[in-house]
Amino acid sequence: MNTNHKAPPPAEPAVSAKAEAATSEADALIRDIAEQKDLHLRLAADFENFKRRSRLETETRASAQKESFIHELLPVIDNLERALAAGGAWDSAQFHQGVEMTLKQLQQLLRQHGIESEEIIGKPFNPHLHEALSQRHDPTQADHTILEMFQRGYRRGAKVFRPAKVVVNDLSPSNQGSHAR
């Protein structure tokens, strides 16, 4: 008896090649997934940045429109204040009351939009908040005190929206004779 059995050739090289191909394909898929994930994260970040920029642009545009409206409204308030100042000439209590009510409504509207004014007569002059139109000598008041307001000033928070136009007291001895009285 001849027991010459030939052993089958080793199958390892074929299996090894298939395993290597599968591993290579798996590595390629993992790299592809990582690239897609990175692309997704970048797109998500870009979209969030776009939304933030759009929101800021919208807020800036709305603020500019509001400021434009308020700038247009200020001359109306100035005219109402002038009418009240000359109210005695009209000799009509109803007219005066109507103008006063309108002025209060407009001032309330400004406050709702964050625009504030303040009474400044007798307070110290501040060149960051006030515009001096002239000077006057009044020994009963402190130096650099606001004596008169020609036009009311307004601010929005800490920002000056429009400076007040004022007359400032000047007690310096060299300029006493040159000021309007």
Written account of the structure:
By secondary structure, the chain is α+β, with helices and mostly antiparallel strands. It folds into 2 domains: 13-113, Hemagglutinin Ectodomain, Chain B (Alpha-Beta Complex), CATH 3.90.20; 117-181, Head domain of nucleotide exchange factor GrpE (Nucleotide Exchange Factor Grpe, Chain A, domain 2). Helix content is 52%, strand content 15%. The protein has 2 helices and 6 strands; from the N terminus they run ααββββββ. The chain has a 3-stranded antiparallel sheet with strand order 1-4-5. It has a 3-stranded mixed sheet with strand order 2-6-3, with no helix packed on it. The chain is elongated and about 130 Å long. The model has no long low-confidence stretch (mean pLDDT 85).
Summary of the model, kept short:
With about 180 residues, this protein is of the alpha+beta class.
Q: What secondary-structure arrangement, pairings included, does this model have?
A:
Elements: H1 12-85, H2 93-112, E1 115-116, E2 130-136, E3 146-151, E4 154-156, E5 159-162, E6 164-169
Helix pairs in contact: 1-2
Attribute tags:
181 residues; alpha+beta; Hemagglutinin Ectodomain, Chain B; Nucleotide Exchange Factor Grpe, Chain A, domain 2; 2 domains; three-stranded antiparallel beta sheet; three-stranded mixed beta sheet; 2 helices; 6 strands; elongated
